[in-house]
Backbone:
């Protein structure tokens, strides 16, 4: 027989009674010196860390990326250096606007965040299931997210807030078209694509930079929920996507995605009339075809949801040699915002938590802070430069090639190009008649509670994208298109 394991306090002291508090007599009040009671209650009060401001409701799993094609002509990152090479990873899916207790089947973009544990450090892709986003400039991100959360007056979700903001933000039209299409409510997390969304960079061994977009194509195929079924599931099984993902992995039905890239040279980007760093637009796959990289597989469920999913912290600032950023304004803003959110939500030493810690050796001069539990650098110096040969030193060979910058510092109008509609219109025309009808019906239902002023302003954008798109929505709202300015 196994030896009995003794219950202890967090400090290791044996617990003699875990059923009864200490009291002054059988019926007397409890005593403050019952340190076991105080510790249990105090820890319980602190068990919930602040939820994420966005992407609060999430599911995650461990897996691997197996390289299937040689892309070393574009990048020197070691995880890509050999076909067949495997890199462990953790992937977190999420809805964007809902709280932790919200339903998995809401109409909402889905987060698709991947942490690759490479031998050169952690590399994070913090993406979505859509290739574009609602806004171009991070200065508008807090405003946008406020409209997706609760009205400060009623504490209710507000269609008026959402559409009022969108009607003043024409660049959102492409993402709106995606969100209200049949792909706006995926059937769980396994049957949807993932995207890095932003433009990133790859740098090869010769120091040549290429611009790149990352795609993850579901090998399970695409499945979506119709609104009626999504509403039913929200009532009977609000954790539908979490249950589906966990159950599939548990029974050995491991979900897989084909990882691909689109590549654009710096010369092509410079000569391009359309801004390749605009996250509200996509790159033509005819002009920049998908190049296969590898296969991502999820094959292990977390042992503890809080430790591995809730405490997982992704940030686009987590990069490795051979992979870099771009002038994408939203990406530049996220480089600060994501890491800062984790410092607030989890703590300054969040990167030491097992799910976030690199799997390779790491050494730096960061010290102290709450919850430091890795030895805190021991007796080694906490400053640099220093005279100690065994202390970590900078390595010039990992420097990125210089980026050419130009222009005067100013607040440039990110809407100056005026093309907010061509990509949304092209997407609408790619849809089948049935998909177009569903898209129009979904938008009509969402816009009915909104004021006439906002409806008219937003209708002008739909009409500019495609006449049939706009007039279909106008008819559903009972508005004569001639009224639209």
Residues:
């Amino acid at each position: 027989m196994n030896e009995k394991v003794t219950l202890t306090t967090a400090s290791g002291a044996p617990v003699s009674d875990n059923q009864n508090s200490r009291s002054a007599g059988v019926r007397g009040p409890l005593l403050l010196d019952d340190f076991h009671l105080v510790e249990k209650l105090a820890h319980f009060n602190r068990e919930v860390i602040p939820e994420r401001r966005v992407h609060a409701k999430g599911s995650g799993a461990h897996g691997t990326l197996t390289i299937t094609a040689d892309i070393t002509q574009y990048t020197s990152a070691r995880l890509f250096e050999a076909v067949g090479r495997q890199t462990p990873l953790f992937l977190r899916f999420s809805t964007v606007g809902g709280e932790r207790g919200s339903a998995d089947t809401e109409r909402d973009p889905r987060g698709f965040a991947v942490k690759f544990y490479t031998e050169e450090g952690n590399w994070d892709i913090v993406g979505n299931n859509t290739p574009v986003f609602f806004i171009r400039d991070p200065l508008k991100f807090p405003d946008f997210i406020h409209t997706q959360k609760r009205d400060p007056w009623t504490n209710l979700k507000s269609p008026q807030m959402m559409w009022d903001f969108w009607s003043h933000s024409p660049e959102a039209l492409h993402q709106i078209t995606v969100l209200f299409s049949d792909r706006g409510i995926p059937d769980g997390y396994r049957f949807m694509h993932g995207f890095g969304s932003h433009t990133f960079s790859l740098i090869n061994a010769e120091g040549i930079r290429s611009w790149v977009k990352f795609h993850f194509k579901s090998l399970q195929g695409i499945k979506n929920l119709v609104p009626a079924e999504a509403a039913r599931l929200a009532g009977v099984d609000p954790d539908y996507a979490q249950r589906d993902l966990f159950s599939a992995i548990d029974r050995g039905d491991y979900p897989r995605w084909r990882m691909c890239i689109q590549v654009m040279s710096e010369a092509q980007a410079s000569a391009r009339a359309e801004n390749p760093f605009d996250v509200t637009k996509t790159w033509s796959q005819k002009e920049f075809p998908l190049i296969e990289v590898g296969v991502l597989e999820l094959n292990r469920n977390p042992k503890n949801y809080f430790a591995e999913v809730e405490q997982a912290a992704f940030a686009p600032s987590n990069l490795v040699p051979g992979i870099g950023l771009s002038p994408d304004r939203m990406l530049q803003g996220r480089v600060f915002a994501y890491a800062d959110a984790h410092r607030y939500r989890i703590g300054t030493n969040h990167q030491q938590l097992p799910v976030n810690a690199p799997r390779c050796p790491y050494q730096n001069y960061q010290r102290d802070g709450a919850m430091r539990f890795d030895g805190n650098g021991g007796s080694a110096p906490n400053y640099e430069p220093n005279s100690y040969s065994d202390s970590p030193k900078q390595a010039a060979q990992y420097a990125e090639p210089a980026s050419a910058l130009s222009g005067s510092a100013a607040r440039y109008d990110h809407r100056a190009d005026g093309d907010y509609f061509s990509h949304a219109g092209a997407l609408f025309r790619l849809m089948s008649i049935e998909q177009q009808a569903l898209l129009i019906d979904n938008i009509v239902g969402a816009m009915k509670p909104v004021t006439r002023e906002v409806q008219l302003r937003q209708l002008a954008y739909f009409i500019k994208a495609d006449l049939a798109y706009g007039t279909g929505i106008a008819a559903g709202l009972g508005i004569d298109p001639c009224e639209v300015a």
